[in-house]
Amino acid sequence: MSAQVSLPSDREVRVTRTFKAPRQLVWDAHTKPALVVKWMLGPPGWSMPVCEMDVREGGAYTWRWRSDEDGKEFGFHGTFTEVNEPARLVHDEYYDPGEIGGDMPENDPALVTLDLSEAGNVTTLVCTMRFSSKEARDGAVSTGMTDGMEIGYARLDQMFAQAA
Amino acid sequence: MNLDATFSALADPTRRAILARLAEGEASVMELAAPFALSQPAVSKHLRVLENAGLITKGRDGQRRPCKIEMAPLNAANDWIERYQQIWEQNYVRLDNLLEALKQDAPEARGKRKKK
Q1: Three-state SS for B39?
Q2: Which domain, by its residues, includes A38?
Q3: Domains of chain B
Q4: Which end of chain A has a smaller Cβ tally under 10 Å, C or N?
Q5: From the CA of A71, how many Å to the nearest CA of chain B?
Q6: What are A132-154's pLDDT values in tens digits?
Q7: Is residue A148 part of a domain?
Q8: What is the CATH number of the domain that holds A40?
Q9: Interface predicted TM-score of the whole assembly (ipTM), two decimals
Q10: Looking at the predicted structure, is the pLDDT value of residue A7 above 50?
């Protein structure tokens, strides 16, 4: 199943995804920097030169990504506020626009909650990002606002079903 | 373009149904009210929300004032979600592969320890 995106409230975005792996491994992949840098890379063309994580309550983390194309960087940093291995990880998230800028506010952190549950060798990941404002959420992904895209009502309906 | 207004307007199933109807063609308030078992004022209220979000416009056809769907905000909303979904899915496909590799390693490592 590919990742499902829903909007539980006007300040939140939720991503849900299942993995055919034990929960502990999914947890490790989210909390061990050597593993995180292998997958949390976003779109093609980015690397993660900085990934420092002190995974304990009150511990800090710094993530930085670099564009292969022009070397420009941006990042996130913050503190782990809840660490309950291997079920729940909560951190606040400050945006560092680096050289790329963007529409996200720098001083209003988002709160990111990762919930992992396991049943029958399948781990369900629910990642909820709560932004400081509606504007911050909408800015979290700046869109090309391209015209002429076909709209799928069934798709929209499914996505907003949770929000309704 | 105000994504927030778009998302709020779309968060209601009746309003999504109204938009689905309007995707097939223009319709008057009365025509829209018929299939929903809603009063005309109730439908008008939903239409105002949709109109304020820029999702529909009202024509100038005398008293009839047919409603017309506007695709641009819907496209922007869909685009936003799609971008978000794609970024995460790209990450998670890589994570799938990493987890497969970790699963291969884990039993092997345990086996080796047992032998020793």
Answers
A1: coil
A2: 4-139
A3: 3-72 (1.10.10.10)
A4: N
A5: 20
A6: 887 777 766 543 222 222 233 33
A7: no
A8: 3.30.530.20
A9: 0.78
A10: yes
Residue type, A19: F
Residues linked to residue A67 through DSSP beta bridges, in sequence order: A46
Query: For all residues of chain B together, what is the average pLDDT?
Result: 82
Those of residues 3-32 in A touching chain B at CB distance below 8 A are 3-5, 7, 10, 13, 15, 17, 19-22, 25-26, 28-29
Q: CB contacts < 8 Å between A and B, how many?
A: 128
Residue A112 burial (CB count, 10 A): 19
A151 domain residue, yes or no: no
Contact A5 B23 (CB under 8 A): no
Residue of B nearest to A41 (CA): B91
Q: Is residue A70 part of a domain?
A: yes
Element (H, E) at B99: helix B71-115
Question: CB under 8 Å to A155, separation ≥6 — which residues?
Answer: B78
Are residues B79 and A144, on separate chains, in Cβ contact within 8 Å? yes
pLDDT digits (tens, 9 = 90+) for B75-100: 777 777 887 788 888 899 999 999 99
Query: What's the pLDDT tens digit per position in A56-100?
Result: 999 999 999 998 888 888 889 999 999 999 999 999 999 888 887
Work out how many domains chain A is built from and give that number: 1
Yes or no: say if A55 and A83 are a contact pair by the CB < 8 Å rule. Answer: yes
